[in-house]
Amino acid sequence: MKLQIADLEFEPLYSHEAIQQRVAEIAQDINNDFEGRQPIFVGILNGSFMFASDLVKEIVVPCEVTFTKLASYFGGLSSTRTIRDDFDLHVNITGKDVILLEDIIDSGNTIKYLIEKLQVRNPASITVCTLLFKPDAVEHSIEELKYVAFQIPNKFVVGYGLDYKELGRNLRGIYSKIG
């Protein structure tokens, strides 16, 4: 089933059911790894809002949830390499375990920027959890990356929080650009 969003065509990559299964599996891993601890989940808006919401519903360890907003895509098909920092965390992370929830890691510039920004606040740990990871596009080693729902080819994707020209975030599945 092809899907038209603005001027581009997309085809299904992952169904809603496949996404929910992986989210539940990752949540179980986090529950096991953080047993006896109280992590702070930091969703990176806008793209991670669906992933963050579904993931934290499956978390059984005590936790806090907050958000920050960064952007490196501005309506196009690739990162601009310019990171816009729209709003900062409003919680103290000193001495706490922080789990960053990202929608997609491609170049790695945005997550690297955020990790460096948060490290100066002396958290006990920083761990990265991403819905999508493009290993062929990544330009930086991300030692903190521990949880990956799906590794994908270096294709442009929309749905489940990810957008093209601010459209498509509401789709339940993930779709890849045709061509």
From TrEMBL:
It is found in: Cytoplasm. The keyword Cell cycle does not apply. GO terms for biological process: GMP salvage; guanine salvage; hypoxanthine metabolic process; IMP salvage; purine ribonucleoside salvage. Its main location: cytoplasm. The keyword Nucleotide-binding applies. Residues 13-165 form the Phosphoribosyltransferase domain. It catalyses: IMP + diphosphate = hypoxanthine + 5-phospho-alpha-D-ribose 1-diphosphate; GMP + diphosphate = guanine + 5-phospho-alpha-D-ribose 1-diphosphate. Keywords: Cytoplasm, Glycosyltransferase, Magnesium, Metal-binding, Nucleotide-binding, Purine salvage, Transferase. GO terms for molecular function: hypoxanthine phosphoribosyltransferase activity; magnesium ion binding; nucleotide binding. Pathway: Purine metabolism; IMP biosynthesis via salvage pathway; IMP from hypoxanthine: step 1/1. GO terms for cellular component: cytosol. Its EC number is 2.4.2.8. Its cofactor is Mg(2+). Belongs to the purine/pyrimidine phosphoribosyltransferase family. This is Hypoxanthine phosphoribosyltransferase. It comes from Mucilaginibacter phyllosphaerae.
